[in-house]
Amino acid sequence: MHHQHYSFEFEVYDSVDQLSTEDRHLLLEARKATAIAYAPYSDFKVGAAGRLANGKEVLGSNQENASYPVGICAERVLLAAASSLYPEVPVKTLAISYHNLNGNSDRPVSPCGMCRQSLLEHETRFKSPIRIIISGMEGKVYVIPEAKMLLPLCFTNEDLKIN
Ligand code: THU
């Protein structure tokens, strides 16, 4: 028996002002996209903005439903939109922000487990990492080099292959 260790590094910025011009733009778009969320049940509005390998930008926001489990997170709305508009093109960077009923938030929140699995599928499908930028409407920003890092011991299409 031996112990295995898992860890990963990500970047931490004090505010959006410290980001590169491109990353700052994308995070500001994600913050703006919280306004197009449809979240009458949770009042938790999530906005996402993705930049694709062809330079195009795609937005996403959470879309809830009176039948609660039918609702979709902003990240998966964005991935579905991006892959429908540009089926051959990977998302390279994805910025996510959110706010609650009070309209503000000052710390990053991470994608939920289902979205992590969805992001991983996109990375696997295109063999291309997705950089994740997360932040509230203000305050610290985390930049995670690839979504896969958020899912240790992940399950992928490789695991479906029969030896
Ligand atoms: N939500 C997202 O859009 N992304 C996440 O990663 C976490 C949760 C949404 C789902 C639901 O509409 C609301 O936030 C509260 O959970």
Percent range of helical residues = 10-25%
Q: Roughly what fraction of the amino acids lie in strands?
A: 15-25%
Count of individual beta strands: 6
**In terms of quaternary structure, what is this?**
single chain
Question: What best-fitting shape do the alpha-carbon axes yield?
Answer: globular
Radius of gyration: 16 Å
Can you list the strand order of the major beta sheet? 1-6-5-4-2-3
First CA to last CA: what distance? 25 Å
Low-confidence stretches: none
Q: In DSSP terms, counting alpha (H) and pi (I) runs of 4 or more, how many helices?
A: 3
What are the secondary-structure elements, in order, as H or E?
EHEEHEHEE
The averaged pLDDT comes out at 96
Layout: helices, strands, pairs:
Blueprint: E1 11-13, H1 21-33, E2 45-52, E3 57-61, H2 74-85, E4 91-99, H3 113-126, E5 131-135, E6 141-144
Parallel strand pairs: 4-5
Antiparallel strand pairs: 1-6, 2-3, 2-4, 5-6
